[in-house]
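Progress report, Aim 2. The chain analyzed during this reporting quarter is listed below.
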Amino acid sequence: MNTIRTAQIRKLEKQDLPQLLPLMYEYIVDFYQCPRPDEQALEKLVHHLLDHPWEGIQFVAETAEQELVGFATLYFTFNTLEAKRMAFLYDLFVSPSIRGQKIGEKLFEACLAYIRENDYSHMIWETAHDNAVAQALYDKMGAKKAVWLNYEMK
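Predicted structure tokens for the chain:
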């Protein structure tokens, strides 16, 4: 494991794309073993979030050496039951080479701070049933398992 003293968490900026995209491929292809998305499509998605922050936002973890080592993505929708906006934490990823240094916690806390500062009703997310590492992080952060059951169709 590489040792880093600190990682700054901040909102994604356009100049981060050359470092972010490889990190996103590490997340999509290596971690989740999904097919590699077209680079133009992935770049278009990131630019869309940068240009339309009311639809979603990305946070990055950056080392003192200005290396991106993690990211989190929030997408926004509405919560009719509370008549407020809500956030869906879709991605939370830290490069495996530097895990265990609380960077995932910092990314999570940045997302939580954002929704609280902007008066969102709540933040939801999902993780794989067998992703014990992520579940341990969420439990440690004080999260509770939702009462709602997820369904999906393709």
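The chain has four helices and five strands. The mean pLDDT is 93. These observations will guide the mutagenesis work planned for the next reporting period.
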